[in-house]
Design goal:
With 474 residues, the protein is an alpha/beta fold. The chain has helices at residues 14-25, 47-52, 54-72, 88-112, 171-174, 191-202, 222-235, 327-341, 370-376, 391-395, 424-436, 441-446, 456-465, and strands spanning 3-10, 30-34, 116-119, 121-125, 129-133, 139-149, 153-155, 168-169, 183-187, 206-211, 238-241, 244-251, 254-261, 264-270, 272-275, 279-281, 314-316, 355-357, 362-367, 380-386, 402-408, 414-421. Strands 1, 2, 3, 4, 5, 6 and 17 form a seven-stranded mixed sheet that branches. A five-stranded parallel sheet has the order 8-15-9-10-11. β13 (254-261) and β14 (264-270) form a beta hairpin. α3 packs antiparallel against α4 (88-112) and α3 (54-72) crosses α6. The active site is at residue 451. Its cofactor is FAD.
Length: 474
């Protein structure tokens, strides 16, 4: 007879572990099955995000920024440093220490909330049974009244550029390079490509990013993308749009990458190639044939508005289902599902989920872009304000970028806020709160913002919607 739980979660990433903790808080008996192993071979809770994604990449971004500032930003403050060097072993070691701290922290949270972890790969069987295959290949079975599938996602591999961990790498490989490559090629100018490209560019690598789409950062607001592209070019990032990669050859310890753009066929020669063309739902081996859970044409688990699969007691959340592949989206789905299971009113609003790219400058947005509003025929007003007119930003020597507020032309309800500049990963929260409470640009404009702060850019952009910004000509 297998162990019986109220909830069994397969996957301990930001969606799965949060769902488990919330379910346990609500008095349910919870188990989590996860196969992610750290460098020491032991279970490392936290999934891609904590182990090889969100957290380690931010650690490297911060460390690389400190190094970059020595030569590029500190001299304007009257600070000069001669012959600054990077100790890559310490650089990577700091990242590993942070990862271990947080993955271990989840283990402590599980212990405090009486969540039972199982180390191994989970497979859903009929009748809400979960088969666990441990690292040694041994199998056991547990069961749950409810099963939450939170298997996450994996990098998309190109057929002509398969990962070999030496020359052609994914995001995990780019976090563990043992030396700074003289030349780094990146396929894909999305979040992963831009962030990891920025890390190694700051450390001295000659980075070229190829983007197949004709426009740079097309998911973001066009004005924001334009400002960001200009700044990345100043930093030395070479970004080529409309560049479609087609083949890779390894010659003399070099990667020869073939691609085509409007000017014809080309070959880019680099020392390392990072393939960052996106991620796909990870569902291999997750489902037995007869369980009834369906997958869509992209391999994602099909769910309804409440993240239920249609199979009694089986739910799915995070990167393995529809919607943006964002850690915070998965976490909120996890909370909502745990609350629905417990008979409470779970909630998640997909229209107010913030997006952030942690480059320099940072990029963040929530809600609709101007292009989306035009396409939908929604009347709107626009207010913008540059960080160049914000005293705090100028004092920090980080005055690049702007805040853009889009409000309904008739109701004044805020429909979207788009930012590029210093600290916007934090500033976007104010916009999300405003939209979640159906607020207007007038609401933002009437709220007192401390001076001098970066948040004044949000205030003035809201004022600018009705052409009454104080520190900008309207």
């Amino acid at each position: 007879m297998s162990d019986k739980f109220d909830v069994v979660v397969i996957g301990a990433g930001p969606a799965g572990y949060v769902a488990a903790i919330r379910a346990a808080q609500l008095g349910l008996k919870v188990a989590v099955v996860d196969a992610f192993a750290g460098k020491d071979g032991k279970q490392a809770l936290g999934g891609t995000c904590l182990n090889v994604g969100c957290i380690p990449s931010k650690a490297l971004l911060d460390s690389s920024r400190q190094f970059y500032n020595l030569a590029h930003n500190l001299p304007v403050h009257g600070i000069t440093v001669e012959n600054a060097k990077i100790d890559l072993k310490t650089f990577i070691g700091r990242k590993d220490k942070i990862v271990k701290q947080f993955t271990g922290g989840i283990g402590q949270l599980f212990k405090a909330n009486k969540v039972t972890p199982f180390f191994g790969k989970g497979k859903l069987l009929k009748g809400n049974q979960v088969e666990i295959t441990d690292p040694e290949g041994k199998t056991s079975t547990i069961s749950g009244t409810n099963v939450i599938l939170a298997s996450g996602s994996v990098p998309i591999e190109l057929p002509f550029a398969k990962f070999d961990s030496k020359y052609i790498i994914d995001n995990a490989g780019a976090l563990d390079l043992t030396e700074v490559p003289k030349r780094l090629g990146v396929i894909g100018a999305g979040v992963i490509g831009l962030e990891l490209g920025s890390v190694w560019n700051r450390l001295g690598s000659d980075v070229t990013v190829l983007e197949a789409l004709p426009a740079f950062l097309s998911v973001a607001d066009a004005d924001v993308a334009k400002i960001a592209a200009k700044e990345f070019a100043k930093q030395g990032l070479k970004i080529k749009v409309g560049a479609k990669a087609s083949g890779v050859e390894i010659k003399n310890d070099e990667v020869h990458l073939s691609y085509a753009d409007k000017d014809g066929e080309h070959v880019l020669i680099v020392d390392k190639l990072l393939v960052a063309v996106g991620r796909r739902a990870y569902t291999e081996g997750l489902l037995a044939e007869n369980v009834g859970v369906k997958l869509d044409e992209r391999g994602r688990i099909v769910v309804d508005d409440h993240n239920h699969t249609g199979v009694d007691g089986v739910w799915a959340i995070g990167d393995a289902v529809r919607g943006p592949m964002l850690a915070h989206k998965g976490s909120e789905e996890g909370v909502a599902v745990a609350e629905w299971i417990a008979g409470k009113a779970g909630h998640i609003d997909f229209d107010t989920i913030p997006w952030v790219i942690y480059t320099e400058p940072e990029i963040a947005w929530a809600g609709k872009t101007e292009a989306q509003l035009k396409e939908a025929g929604i009347p709107y007003k626009v207010g913008t304000f540059p960080f160049a007119a914000v005293g705090r930003a100028v004092a920090m020597n980080e005055a690049v970028g702007q805040v853009k507020v889009l409000a309904h032309a008739d109701t004044d309800r805020v429909l979207g806020v788009h930012m590029v500049g210093p600290g916007v990963s934090e500033l976007i929260a104010e916009a999300v709160v405003t939209m979640e409470f159906k607020g207007s640009s007038e609401d933002l404009a009437r709220i007192v913002h401390a001076h001098p702060t970066l948040s004044e850019a949000v205030h003035e952009a809201a004022l600018a919607v009705d052409k009454r910004a104080i520190h900008k000509g309207n």
